[in-house]
User: What shape does this take?
Amino acid sequence: MPDNDKHIGKGNDQEVSLKVLLLNFNAFLFYSLKKWRLVLTFVIIGALLGLGVALFKRTQYTASLSFVLEEQSGGGSMGAAASIAAQFGINLGAMGQSAGFFQDDNIIEFLKSRSMIDETLLSMAIINGKSERLVDRYVDFKGLRKKWKSNNRIAGIQFQDTTGIYLQDSLMAMFYKTITKDHLNVRKPDKRLNIIEVSLESPDELFSKVFVEKLIANASDFYIRTRTKRAQENLDVLTFQVDSVRQELNSAIRGVAAATDANPNPNRAFQSLRVASQLRTVDVQANTEILKELVANQELAKITLRNEKPIIQTLDQPILPLKNDKIGKAKGIILGGFLGGVFIGLGLLGKFLYRRIMEA
Assistant: This one.
């Protein structure tokens, strides 16, 4: 067959296929119109269901907070400080070390850990001008107090900021599982960036907001304590030594004054009368030199502590009103009716195609 004939044949096949498709489509529309009562019934049912969801569904509020970990670098001006500190036996090289446990995705698991969730739930917060524990607010919006009325063991439980209480720890374990499974989400929006986003969804708008803020605050405090523990201990020791030597120096200065007052004009023929004053003067000079060295070390230790202290820099924080999934009445009716129509439409289409196949 010539090429032209082949193209003509293909064109006829396409026209036939399109014609068959249009005829089937018209047949399906005609078939659906005959079932208009059924279609209308499903649309009305869907609209009523949508209205019911809008009226009775508990609104969920989502609080989101994103942050990035900022660490001081060990370069720049600190290079000079490190060389000076080396003369006094202080090592500032640790400032450029990595965050270790707090690197990469470890921080995500840390934020979802039992210790962080428990500490956050047991934290006090000012909500609507009233100080209360977040765990009490969690119990209230979950309606657990009503469920516990029949159980004398837990009906009047008062949560405390401590561990080792068997009943409280058991309840906290249950809360932890529910929160991490149904409410809390910690993720990295972009794997290439070091930005972490924490979000919590709950029916209590203020609880959602305060929880994520407290969680990050507690994590930041723990992070800083961990990263600066060694530097803080070194500074505490030096501060104690400085205070002790300063007291000794003050005592020696008072001793010189007392010895001088006791014998203001000593006879040069009696050298023993000058011994007490001279001994105290030596103590003053020695303690002065020691104090100079310790104060220098103390100042360098303060520099070390400042540069060891990391910062959790908040990028976006939750602002009221929070994002929510509330559905308006009109939206619920329209969306429900549409879904009802789609559902019955798919059902009629399946039945129509089945009849066509059986008739073929």
User: Anything to note?
Assistant: The chain has two domains: 3-57+327-359, 61-323. Strands lie at 61-70, 124-127, 130-133, 184-187, 195-202, 311-316, 323-324. Residues 73-81, 92-99 have pLDDT under 50 and may be disordered. The two ends are 31 Å apart (CA to CA).
